[in-house]
Amino acid sequence: MARKDEERDDELNEDEESQGSDASAEEREDDARSEEESEAAASEDAEESAAEHERERAEHEEADLAAEAKALAHESEQTAAEQLGTSARYVHAAFFIAGILVAFISSKIIGVAWGALADWPAATRAVPQLLRFAEDERGSYALGAGALIGVLTVVQVYRKEHVRRWADEVALELTKVTWPSRETVTNGTVVVIVASMIATVYVALLDRFWGFLTHLVYGA
Fold first, then answer.
1. What distance in Å separates the CA atoms of residue 5 and residue 11, rounded to the nearest whole number?
2. Quick one: which of 96, 97, 100 has its CA closest to 108?
3. CA–CA separation, 84 vs 7, rounded Å?
4. How far is CA 71 from CA 74, 78, 79, 154, in A?
5. Cβ distance 115 to 138 under 8 Å?
6. Do the beta carbons of residue 142 and residue 102 sit within 8 Å?
7. Model-wide pTM > 0.70
8. Which helix (H) or strand (E) holds 180?
């Protein structure tokens, strides 16, 4: 009887131990599952954070690129406007020079024509006012009349639509010209001066050499 009780107690102890070991295994599995879930959640959070950081960086880069493109476009517009204004000034200066040239030629023509008519008796009889002014005064009046003709000519020509369109096209084409920089012009000038000096020295030495040979051959 006592032996049966001992066996029963042993069986109960074994059952309790097996139940305890099963419970410990389940706890370990739960802990491992919790750790895996925590690691997965942390990995997802890290990936989301990295993706968010990458998006923010891409947005910043796009904003910087857009700002740079806008600044470059604004700068190019300002440069084009400045070049167009400079080219327009060149065109206006050309019209001004043309007006001066017309005024000069007109004054000379008027002066020559006035002198010729003043020396023609039939003209002086028909228009006595031709002899009213001396030759010195005729030059001043002819210059004033030529200046008036030059101004009127330039104004009348510039008022025409096709002439203004042509002037604007010329100014626009001048903006496409790539003008040399100060350094380029300086270097080119130095090269030309040095080349001219070398050519001058070479021609001078060659002239002296041939002169020496000519004197040596024909001088005797």
1. 10
2. 100
3. 113
4. 5, 10, 12, 41
5. yes
6. no
7. no
8. none
Of the CA atoms within 13 Å of residue 46, those in its CB half-sphere come to 6
Indicate the domain borders of the chain.
Answer: 182-220
Hunting for tokens 């102890």 — which residue is that? Answer: 13
Q: What is the pLDDT of residues 167-201, one digit of tens each?
A: 778 777 777 777 788 899 999 999 999 999 999 99
Query: Hey, what amino acid is at 133?
Result: F
Read off the tokens for 125. 């009889």
- What is the C-alpha to C-alpha distance for residues 189 and 196, in angstroms, rounded to an integer? 10
C-alpha pair distances (Å), 68 with each of 60, 63, 74: 12, 9, 10
Helix axes 135-158, 161-175, angle to 10 degrees: 80
Per DSSP, helices labelled H in the chain are 2-118, 121-126, 135-158, 161-175, 182-218
Nearest to 88 by CA among 151, 156, 162, 172: 172
**Cβ atoms 174, 90 nearer than 8 A:** yes
Q: What sign has the CA pseudo-torsion 183, 184, 189, 192?
A: positive
pLDDT in tens, 193-211: 999 999 999 999 999 999 8
